């Protein structure tokens, strides 16, 4: 997969000059965070002031593995462990608040899962993909998006269902949605469109391809939500 960059015509698509970015150089994302440093623009300063308590908590509870004292490999596990703890707690709070909001406005939980939760859990993947793409590693961004979705479907669904089934062997795990079959069909269709788009673009990443994929995501999400909202039929199963 190649990145189209008019400024680097004739150069390797997977490499960028050391003066721009590389994994050996310390770019802006690789520098340790200074929690007391104010950003430059006014908008960033406003967001910084609002999120300062969160920054402060993370600063004192999550060790910054980018510092020279954390270069040895085993110490990275402490940063990874604390990040996992915060992700678990914040994910629980996010799901809890979304369920209450959906219950208040009469929105199916599946619609919230297809929109709010899907977007919220994908933000870290978007940020990591942007970072690696800026470093000229387009193939890593594609692998990240595909691998994370495979992990989400097979592990993040399979493992909780297995634990729930083992806790009560006589009580199966119920899915309160008959439209999930059509949602899976839409998902498989997007996979086919994804492969076809890359074949047409000759495995090159470009703005046009990005716009096409973004449009496909909007269409697929809209169709899936319409199924869950019973626009195309009666698919929702009553909870009581």
From TrEMBL:
Signal peptide annotation: none
Locations listed in the record: Membrane
InterPro entries in UniProt: K/Na/Ca-exchanger, NaCa_Exmemb, NCX_ion-bd_dom_sf
TM regions (residue ranges): 46-65, 77-106, 112-133, 145-163, 175-199, 211-229
Membrane topology qualifier: Multi-pass membrane protein
Domain of life (superkingdom): Eukaryota
GO CC entries: plasma membrane
Molecular function terms, GO-annotated: calcium channel activity; calcium, potassium:sodium antiporter activity; symporter activity
UniProt keywords, alphabetically: Antiport, Calcium, Calcium transport, Ion transport, Membrane, Potassium, Potassium transport, Signal, Sodium, Sodium transport, Symport, Transmembrane, Transmembrane helix, Transport
Chief subcellular location: membrane
GO biological-process terms attached to the record: intracellular calcium ion homeostasis
Pfam families associated with the record: Na_Ca_ex
Domain Sodium/calcium exchanger membrane region: 76-224
Protein family per UniProt: Belongs to the Ca(2+):cation antiporter (CaCA) (TC 2.A.19) family. SLC24A subfamily.
Protein name: Sodium potassium calcium exchanger 3-like
């Amino acid at each position: 997969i190649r990145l189209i960059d008019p400024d680097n015509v004739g150069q390797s698509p997977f490499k960028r000059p050391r003066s721009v970015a590389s994994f050996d150089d310390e770019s802006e994302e690789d520098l340790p965070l200074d929690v007391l440093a104010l950003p430059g623009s006014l908008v960033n300063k406003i967001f910084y002031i609002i999120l300062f308590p969160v920054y402060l908590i993370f600063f004192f509870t999550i060790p910054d593995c980018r510092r020279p004292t954390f270069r040895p490999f085993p110490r990275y596990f402490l940063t990874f462990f604390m990040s996992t703890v915060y992700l678990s707690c914040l994910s629980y709070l996010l799901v809890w608040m979304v369920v209450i909001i959906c219950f208040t406005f009469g929105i199916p939980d599946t619609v919230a899962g297809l929109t709010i939760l899907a977007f919220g859990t994908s933000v870290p993947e978007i940020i990591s993909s942007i970072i690696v793409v800026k470093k000229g590693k387009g193939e890593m961004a594609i692998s990240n998006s595909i691998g994370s979705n495979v992990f989400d479907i097979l592990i993040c669904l399979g493992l909780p269902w297995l634990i729930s089934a083992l806790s009560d062997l006589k009580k199966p795990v119920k899915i309160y949605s008959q439209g999930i079959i059509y949602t899976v069909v839409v998902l498989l269709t997007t996979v086919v469109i994804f492969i076809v788009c890359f074949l047409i673009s000759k495995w090159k990443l470009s703005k046009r391809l990005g716009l096409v994929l973004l449009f496909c995501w909007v269409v697929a999400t809209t169709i899936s939500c319409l199924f869950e909202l019973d626009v195309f039929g009666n698919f929702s199963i009553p909870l009581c």
